[in-house]
Structures are given as structure tokens and as C-alpha cells.
Structures
1.
Amino acid sequence: MSQTMEAPAIALEKVNKWYGTMHVLRDVTMNVAQKERVVVCGPSGSGKSTMIRCINRLETHQEGRIIVDGTELTDDLRALDTIRREVGMVFQSFNLFPHLTILENCTLAPISVRKMPKAEAEELAMDFLRKVKIPEQAKKFPGQLSGGQQQRVAIARALCMKPKIMLFDEPTSALDPEMIKEVLDTMVSLAESGMTMVCVTHEMGFARMVADRVVFMDRGEIVESGTPTRMFEDPQTDRLKLFLSQILRGH
Amino acid sequence: MNNPAAATVTQLTPAPTRERPPASVYGPMAWMRANLFSGVFSSIVTIVLGFLIVYAVYGLFQWAVVNAVWSVPTTAAGALDPTSCRLVHGVGACWAAIGDKWRFMLFGRYPYEQQWREALCLLLFIGLFWVSSDSRFWNKWLGAIWAVTLVVIFTLMWGGVFGLAYVAQDEWGGLPITLILATFGLALAFPLAVLVALGRRSTKLPAVKMLCVVYVELIRGVPLIALLFMANVMFPLFMPVGINPDKLLRAQVAIILFAAAYLAEVVRGGLQALPKGQAEAADALGLTYWQKTIKITLPQALRLVIPPLVNTFIGFFKDTSLVLTIGILDFLTSSKTAMADPTWQGVSTEIYIVVALVYVAFCYTMSSYSRGVERKLDRVRNR
């Protein structure tokens, strides 16, 4: 890799996690370079969501080290605050705050966490809402928007914190087919802007278009990783071959 | 001739829109047919129930209005002569008794010539509720308004300053006592309940969680009357000699602790019902625990539990009457005491009806206000 000299944006070293006795992450080791765009795929229950949620400590790992933007994730709350400020996250179920307007959803964190003046936060939010192409919805409530629009607001909301890294946890899985494209378009333009991205998704077209690297997980471990072309056209392991045949059959 | 395309076009012509549906499906006649006379059985039920309702209302009207005694003459000695009331006993209401005793019902044993002070307190309480229920006043001034009003209320009740005669707490009574107990009870129990509910859901502070669980289970497991007795009899035993907080304050503390345990469970129900994603999204944005709680989870959780919350509020408003067991004269008890007057022997239904109407007025106001709030919140956003 060309960027090995630079410190990685995210480094996972032999991360292990158990739910009770179930071993959900097994010796997961992965580096994400600055500005790198990684797509994580794998069958359901393979631990890919758990892995991405460990990166901003929505889940805690029990063994190994996770270093994000030079700060190690520990029980230290201050370190956690630093990391969460720099890492944005987009969820499968949007998780917009239904009691706040679209604009308030976007300005809440900059005002409360970054201590940004309200006017400045609103200007910033409107900028990002224009970028995701829904500035005219700013005064509405999330319940009045379509799924695709809500997910684009969720992306804008995360971007308003000006994060260095963006995590996407199956951002299009809860959407109707006709809305997937508008969200993917937003993500593509974000990728083109040079954002470091880790994205759990089954959208192979998206992976081909923007990913520098595809990571395939199965049963809690990373089985194979490489460039999208190499992974999709020349899978090395049987598990990846099986997975690809299953998702391609579905399309 | 038999062009299939032409046939399709005819089918696609939109049906004419009509201004209103026919009277058989819409309007009062249709409503009556659908709800009251939909069949033989339902028609019979409607007629029988209708008869019973008319009969009951007629009977009540005869008793409460037509045969009622509204005032009684005064005897030469200056006392009231209740003879006319006794004559109609059983067939007509004796409202004259209310006219004579209403001040005792409302104000209890508070010195007669000072009762304007309690009356003023009632008005202040009602004003306070009115102001608090208007969202235009929901700003930083509301706390100040409450503090000032409550200081004024207690100054009026106690006196001893500004030329007001001192009135010992044992002499307080009537509706102001009910309002003091209910207002303080709920206003202080609610924030405590929120803290207990949050504590009970805490994952990082097991000791706090344990404490909250024990508090809720212990207090909920004891009848309010027992708690009031305890506050009255046992609490002074633990205090140093000579320090004896007054009876009303002890009852008030007992009510606050009891109400908080119940309200805490209601609030916890709301927190539990929130999707986990809300808290996760707040965490992912970097909000602190208190920012997350105050701005994201609590507003949504409380909105979800408005109906059970108001249910508990109404329950506790009425439960304040249990302070009679430790000898505090609240509205219900002072009204009951008013009945003991030998002049008005046998007059109890009338007094109970008036007491019930006052309670209903307060409780109904609470419930209709809460319905208004829910409607307003629904309008703001449709989920």
C-alpha cells in the first residue's frame, strides 16, 4: 500500500468480542488508511456491523486494541468523546430524532458538542442539506420525509460535526429500491470529496465504483480482502465464492 | 366497430365526484341507524336504556331542583331554622346547608375572619396552574413565578408578618391543604421520579441502580396510609429532642416519596419504549450523557407516557385525602366535619355531591389539558 508511511485512520489489532459465550469477533485485524474507502461485506451474522460499531464504541471489544485517529479506545471517557467527535455514523434505521426538525437534528451536535454559535451551526447545516439536495425540507419533521430523504438527512447530520471518518452501517438496507440510488449518489459524492469511509453494505455496484478495498467477513473473522475488481472477479476462498454466488443470484 | 381500445377509454372515464355522500351513509339519521337501531335487539336496548336515562335524570332534577330547599328562615334568636329542610328529607335536596357550611368545607378550622387569606391562596394556586399550563410561559421565568407564588402562599397561610395574624399550622384546613399537598407532592415527586428512573436504567453505576430499585420496591410495597403513619409517629423519634417538623411537612414528605416511586416506574416505562437507536445516534454524535438525556431520550419518553403520567397525577390528587388518618383536615375531611353540625343533621348527600364536583372539576381539567397537549404534539409531527 502506498500510504503505509502515514499513521492509519483506524487500526484494529487482534480484536475479539463475545456476546455471552458466542464469539462474534475473532482476531479481527484491519487498518484503514487516511482517505481510504473500505467496503465491508459478508453474510448476515458475520460480525461486520459489530465490528463497525466497535470503532466508535457503541459496542465494546473485550480483547485487542482499536486505535482511531491516533487515540486508543479504552474506558477513558475523554478519549471516547474525542473519537466520537471525529467519527460520524450513519445507521440502517436512520435514527433521526423524531421530535426535532430536520434543521435541529443537524445543529444539535455542533451546538452542544462543538459549542458552535447557533447562527453558524444553522448556516453549516443548510450547506450540508444543500449538498444532500434537501434544503427545502429543513423546517419539517423526520416523520414527514421519505426513507431516502431521511437517510440523506442522517448523512448531513453526521457531516455537520465535520468528522474525519464516516462509518456507514448498512445505510441502504432499510430503503425501498427506488430510494437506494439517491442515498448511494450522496455517498459517492462524499467519497469523491476525500472522506475516510468504512461502509458495511451489500451494494456491490457502489463497492466497485468507490471502494479502494473490499473486506469480506464471515463468522466473525476477516476472510479475505483486496481491491473490488480482484475480490469480485477472482475470489480466492470458497466462502467468498459462495457468498458472491448467493448475492449475485439475488440480483 | 367493436374496437377494444374504445372500450378501455370508456372504462377510464372518472366517476363524477359528488358533493356529499347520500343521507343513508352520512349525517345524524345514518348515525342513529348505524349505532342505535341497527337491529331488533339493539333497538330494544336503545329504548330501554333511553327510558332509564330519562327516568334517572327526571328523578335527579326533582330532587336537586324542584323539591330542593335553597334557603331557610332565621329564627328570632338569630340561628337558622332547618325545619323546612327536615320536611323534604329524602325527596328534595337541602342546598341551604351548603350555603351555611361552604366556608367550613373550603377553609376548615382556619380562623373565620382570616379566611380571606386562604381564599386568596386558592386563587393564587389556580393562577399558578393556569400560567404553568400555557406554553407561552414555558421559559426561564416560570421557575421564578413558582418560587414567588409559593412564598406568597405560605406567607398568607402562616401570617405573623406584614400585620397578618399568625395562624398555627394545626388550624389550616380545607381545599388549600389539598392543593398544597397535591401541588408540592407532584411538583417535587416528578423530578425525583425522573432521577430514580434514570438511575434504575443506569448500566455503569450498579450501586445507584440497586439503590433506586430498593427505593421503588420498598415504597411501592407499603400502603400510603402506613407511610403517613410512619411519617407522623416514627419520624419524630429519629429526630433530636426539641426538633419536631410540623405535621403537614411530614405528610408532604411521605406523599412526595410515595408519588415519586410510582411516577419513576411510569417514566421508566417511557424510557424503555424508546428505540435503542435514538440513544445510539446521540452517542455517535458525541453528546454527553446529560445532553443525550435532556435533549433526546427524556422529551420523547415523557411524551410517550403522558396518559399514564396524568393517570398517576389524578390518582395522587385524590389520595391526598388520606392525610385525614393523621388528623390533617384536607378538603374532603373538613367537608365531612362540616356535616357533624347538629343543625344540619341528615344532610350528607348534598355535601358529598359538592365535594365530588370540586374533585371532578380539578381532575377533569387535568385530563382534558393532557389530551390537548397530546393533540398538539401529534400535530407538530406525525410519526
Note: The interface with chain A takes residues 275, 277-278, 280-288, 291, 295-296, 299-300, 303, 380-383 of chain B (CB under 8 Å).
2.
Amino acid sequence: MSPAAPTPLALIAELTHRCPLHCVYCSNPLELKQRADELSTEIWSRVFREAAEAGVLQVDFTGGEPLARPDVVELVRAAREAGLYVSLITSGLPLDEARLDALVQAGLDHIQLSFQGATEESANEISGTKAHAHKLRVLDWLRGHRVALTLNFVIHRANIDRLEEMLALGESSCAGRIEFANVQYYGWAFANRENLLPTREQLDRSVDLLKRAQERLRGRIQVEFVVPDYYAKYPKACMGGWGQKLMLVTPNGDALPCHAAQIIPGLHFDNLKDRSLREIWEKSEAFEKFRGEEWMPEPCKSCDRRTRDFGGCRCQAFLLAGDAMATDPVCSLAPLRFKVDAILATVNEPAAAPVVKPNWLYRPNPA
Amino acid sequence: MTPELNSRPHLALGCRLNEKGQQSRVLHMPERALRLNGPSLEIVERCDGKRTVREIISELQEIYSKAEPKKVEGDILGYLALLNDQRALDFTSDQADRSANAK
């Protein structure tokens, strides 16, 4: 018997997997959804209404690049009318000033603009596209618009020593928040992991630097950072617990408990074209599977931290242990922690320090 | 920081209260939301860019007249500082500043 479903708080709407960037750490699945299968404007609008009725407070438009949808302004309006707080997570690429204006007019609350680095050369290598100069233009346009801004830098071995430049770029913009998010190892990032994981020394330096920046900018800009959990002592509370707070909807309408859930073999995902959001949230096999504590193995089952980190991430357990039911191997208490330590040992060998020219596996565009 | 008694707090860009009539009142912020009730709601509803911190304190002291006024003042100043740290609240020091800082 599984516990009753809590109220969902946030909806992550992957509007499309199309994207002008080809980032080597993209969190999208290796198998991208095709354009022809994308949900219509009408179905998305219904999903927003159903989400708000079920208690959801906010929706994040993401992708791929959400601006690749020609109806994105309409979708912002529909989500606001449903009563949701609307964030747009974007590369800024398919944006011009008129479109930015239309999005803000439609009620967009917040933009999270991603940067792949602080300089043209380093950023373009990671995104596989000449994107950086345009992003700087978008920053300029944003000064004239009433919408909150977060700058997001994805951090990895090749750029973790350049946080000062990124901070300077953030401070010169009108951002209220700057996020430094270390790559998490799923999808394309898992495939490129050997070239992305920072060394322990790099990580320690970066944490020191960002803590000082947090103090210095307090009350003006909020600085947040996420460390790579391979270096953590305990696992992350992935998605705030499976089926506890978030629902992610893929471009074709599959409802998932997290970004990567479709890699877990044997799990069936219901589609919002066929069933209502509330029904899927409360009763679907995928959301019930790891909800609560029933499924937990030892050492999680009797661990004091089980209500805080929920045994860690199910997808990471599958990727590293080959078993989605296992304790997340990044946990120092996990029987399989040695696997993570072995990966870290290779990265931290002197010979492995910054690779000069990695052989990146770039994410392509879906058909 | 300690908020100036004569400054006028207002919600920062990207922060807004959800509509009245919904089951619970929520302060939306980029990437997070705060459920408000009782005193926290009374305070945030008054951060309208018109009232000064001093005015908010005296209105709350009236509502919570059974509480020690000094304690009400301290709690409010602490809460406003916390919201400012989280980038939910900005303060303007007079009328002229307000339009300049509105962005």
C-alpha cells in the first residue's frame, strides 16, 4: 500500500527538444523527442489549468529551447491565466527585442538565461554554436523590461577556474540571481563525464570563492551554487523526493517524476493526452513506484536521513549501480560508493588534470 | 542589514503575491515560493512601496496589540531583512527614488 500523494508544487514543461545549441552536458535524454510528436497549444493549456487545480504554483518552460515553439507567447498567457508563476529557461538565442516584449506583456514572471562561459571562445566550444555574442545582446535588452532575471552558468572542469569572469558578467547585468550549477551526470553529461568532472582541488577553490561572493553581494544579488554530487558525502534530495513536489512533462506529453526517469527499465509513463494530470500524479505506476519509503533497501530504510534525501536519485542509482532500487552510490553509506570513488580517483590523478582538447560528444537536434 | 524606518519596502522584480481567493496565500519568487499566513501575510501585503517601515510596524502593533510592541518591531525588522536577503524585497528611501528603483 503506497502513501497518499502530496500536493504537487511545480511543473517542468519541456515544450520541445529542438535547440540551436548542442551542449555536451545537456540533461535531455540521448533519444530526443521528434517535433511531429509535440503537444499542441490546446493540450498544454489544459495541462496548465489541471496543474493549477491540483495545487501547482509555478511552471518552468524549458526544453530543448522553449523559444523554438512559435506559440510560446500564447503558452505564457495560458499559464498565467491558469494562475501559475511562469519562468522561462532559455539560451536566449531565438529571441529578439519584439519577442521579449511580447513575452513580458503576456505575463512572463522570470527568465533564466543560460551561459556556457564568460568568454566567446570557451562558451562556444561547449555549446557547439556561436551563441555567446547574441546572449550579451539579450542581456542589454533585458534592462529595459520588467521581468526578473537569473543568470545560469553550468560549471565543469574546463570553466570552473573562471568563476570570477562569470561573476563580473553577472554583476554588470541586471540579474537578481546568479546560479553556478555544476553539471549533474545524466544524458549527454554522463557520456562526456570524463572530460567534465572537476578535480577536488578545483571544486574546493570554487566553493571558497562563491561563499565570499555570496557575502559580498548579499541583499543585491543572490548567488547560488550546486556542487557535483559525486563529491558529496550524502546524496542530493533529488526533485525533493520522487513524486513529492514536481512533475516533468516531455514534449510529447509523457509525465515523469524527474528529467531522466525514462532511462529506468520497465517503468511505464502515462501520457497527458490520455489521462488528467491529477490522475497521473496520484495513481500512475511511475509516480507511485518510489514514492515514500516502502521501496527502500538498507542502509536507507533505517537511516535517519531517509526523510531528508529519500535515498538519493533513482536514475543515478540505475546509471552507477545498474539498479534503480539501490541506495544512490554517491552516498558515503552506500555499499557501492567505491564505484564513485574509483571515478573520482581517475579524475584526481595528476595526469588526468585539465584535458587540453577533449573529444566532445555533441548533442544533435531531433528530427 | 537593518531596514531604515523611513524607507518604503516593495516586492522585488519577479516577486508577487498570488491572487486572493485561492486556498492559500503564496509569495511567488524566482525559483521558489513562500506560503504566508498570519503576521507574515499581514507584513507582505503592506510592502506596497507606499507605506514606510515605521507605518507597517505601527499597523501591525495595532493588530497584535496583545504582544509586546518592541517584540513586534524586532520581528518585523528581522523578517524584512530576511526577505531582502532572499531578493524578495527592495527598499526605496523617498518618492523620487521609487521610480528609479522600480526596474
Note: Chain A has a mean pLDDT of 92.
